[in-house]
Amino acid sequence: MTPILYIGNRRFSSWSLRAWLVLTKAGIAFDDRLVPLNNTDTRKALSAISPGGTVPALHIESAVIWDSLSISEWAAEHVPGLWPSHEGKRARARAAVSMMHAGFLAIRENCPMDLGRAPSPIELSDATRTEIAAMQALWHDVKSVDGPWLFGDWSIADAFFTPVAARFQAYDIPLHAGAQAYCDTLLADEDYLLWHHAAQAETFPNPYENTL
Ligand SMILES: N[C@@H](CCC(=O)N[C@@H](CS)C(=O)NCC(=O)O)C(=O)O
């Protein structure tokens, strides 16, 4: 069976983008199927395909994996090189990904991913400003000098921070030079651009209209 990755609207679903990027970079053959979010029947549709009631959800022969990090770990079990090979870098990459997976709630709340948004600033809460500084400090602390990606070669960490770069771009957030260069790398990635291009073709209503 070819794995099926259920995703949300490409324009808005940052967790779907992460899992899709990891599977794509891994070179794993999979089909994707979109479940439109923010509809009256979204909850029902999601509960039919995802035990967690969320996307992404990856259907493989033996299981449904309904969380972006778990999907990434499944991919890493099958394809080498998705985590850094150096033990210390790998530990730092896992820690950075865990921070993203579980935290940065103010950025996620205040600056939702919207790949159709023309870049323009919004009012940022104090908590969001603090987290933007923390994000840049984190990147500065762990950034490898061995390549353009966070840990040198592309890794799962880069998938997890790609939606952040898209948020910083969409809300025109000024960044330190190093953080900006890293975001530019993420947003110029050819696989991300495929997703971004497909997102532009979507015509679903914008749930953030009139709220930002
Ligand atoms: N921890 C989950 C979070 C997934 C998540 O919250 N997905 C959102 C879309 S980006 C979702 O499905 N929301 C349900 C809804 O909109 O009803 C993961 O990493 O996959």
Characterize the biggest β-sheet. Answer: 4 strands, mixed
Strand order of the largest sheet: 2-1-3-4
| CATH C-level name of the largest domain | Mainly Alpha
The kinds of small molecule bound in this structure are: glutathione
| Poorly predicted regions | none
The proportion of residues in beta strands is: 5-15%
Mean pLDDT rating: 97
Q: What value does the Rg take, in angstroms?
A: 17 Å
The class by helix and strand makeup works out as alpha+beta
Number of helices: 9
Shape: globular
Number of strands: 4
CATH topology of the largest domain: Glutathione S-transferase Yfyf (Class Pi), Chain A, domain 2
What string gives the helices and strands in order? EHEHEEHHHHHHH
Task: Based on the coordinates given, report the CATH architecture of the largest domain.
Answer: Up-down Bundle
Specify the helix fraction band: 40-55%
State the separation between the terminal residues, measured CA to CA: 42 Å
Total tally of structural domains: 2
